[in-house]
Amino acid sequence: MGSAAKKDDEEEALHHQPLLVARKGLQVEEEENLGDLKRRVWVESKKLWHIVGPSIFFRIASNSMNIVTQVFAGHLGNLELASISIANNVIVGFNFGLLLGMASALETLCGQAFGAKNYHLLGIYMQRSWIVLFFCCFLLLPLYIFASPVLKLLGQPDDVAEQSGLVALWFIPLHFSFAFQFPLQRFLQSQLKTSVLVWVSLLALVVHVFVSWLFIYQLHFGVVGAAIALDVSWWVLVFGMLCYTICGRCGETWTGLSIQAFSGLCEFLKLSAASGVMLCLENWYYRILILMTGFSNDTKVAVDALSVCMSINGWEMMFALAFFAGTGVRVANELGAGNGKAAKFATKVSVVQSTIVGVAVGSGWQTWVAYINVGCYYLIGLPVGIILGWIFHLGVEGIWGGMIFGGTALQTIVLAMITVHCNWEKEAEKATMHVQKWSSPSPNSQPSIKH
């Protein structure tokens, strides 16, 4: 009886053995897949943070120079702080957003060219960007020259408008530095040469603190000294990155000045303009909010309060902008190499780690994002801010609430939904065709002029 029961147990064990083996095999396979996923996430995270980490430091240091200027101006008086805030955040800020957005076209072009191993194109793209942005700087000069009458026309008090107009004139050298600094930064980021950004920005910040102290407290130049200090510091950024680029540290991507930079400028201008509209619509939204506070009862205090809030928020935004740049470069690199799945995986890792999408730049979706920015910020965010600020009498708090919840949050949700439903293989095919098109030599091209 015992032997029969034992025999039945053995037969039952043999019957279930294939199932147990299958389950064990499935478990091993799942563990291997999980291990492979962890390894891929780790590798992608290292690639992402190789860009994001230095980018965060660079942006925080650059933004800190603006804040240091506001701190020094605040010690001069409320009028001086208000004039620096309006000149820097409104006049310079309007142009900053447009030029920064136009330079973002390089994140698409340089990132995809680097992924496709067409290294020589990066230097040509950067030179084209220099030409386009420098030309735009001249077109934007009237905003600086006629800043005072424009601000008065927008309802700002005469003393604030006059002082802001004076500061705006002294910010013209800063304005022209954007034409070279923005393309240089994206040129270096796209080829993962990010450590130089840390050292250059640190040097510029130290120089800025010293020069601000010298011009304001020792030479007594007042608010003009604060503006000159900011001019000097931003040009330190330009010359630092330029020296690194042309002194042999970018041998494959910088082959000297090239006549090819003047070919294809029309198409380059179209892509740059689309990028500029995408970012400046978001950037201008914040500048409009500062102008709106000028209609309050105590203009100087209201502008000063909102400027301080935006400065603090600006530090936080530096993290988001760094992920924006890092994700754009990673997506562009993979799309340029024809790896649609890798681009999608890079997007997932970045979104999980940052909760912010910068993906649209790497893929070249600038035009679509411009429409989204108009809808979220101007059709929803701005009216909500006006309603909360004036109808519900919440003042600066209402304007700030409309900006955050009506504009920024909604834009993030919409972009996230678009990214999730994107066909990444199709985007990789488009990127490959894009690189091939732009890498085609011009019939009028000539050899580059090397240094």
From TrEMBL:
The alphabetical list of record keywords is: Membrane, Transmembrane, Transmembrane helix
Q: Which GO terms describe its molecular function?
A: antiporter activity; xenobiotic transmembrane transporter activity
Report any one BP term from Gene Ontology.
Answer: xenobiotic detoxification by transmembrane export across the plasma membrane
The UniProt entry's sequence similarity note says:
Belongs to the multi antimicrobial extrusion (MATE) (TC 2.A.66.1) family.
Q: Where are the transmembrane segments?
A: 130-147, 167-184, 196-217, 223-247, 368-392, 398-420
**Membrane association type:** Multi-pass membrane protein
> InterPro entries in the record, alphabetically?
MATE_euk, MATE_fam
Cell compartment(s), UniProt: Membrane
**A GO cellular component entry from the record:** membrane
Which Pfam families has this protein been placed in?
MatE
* Full protein name: Protein DETOXIFICATION
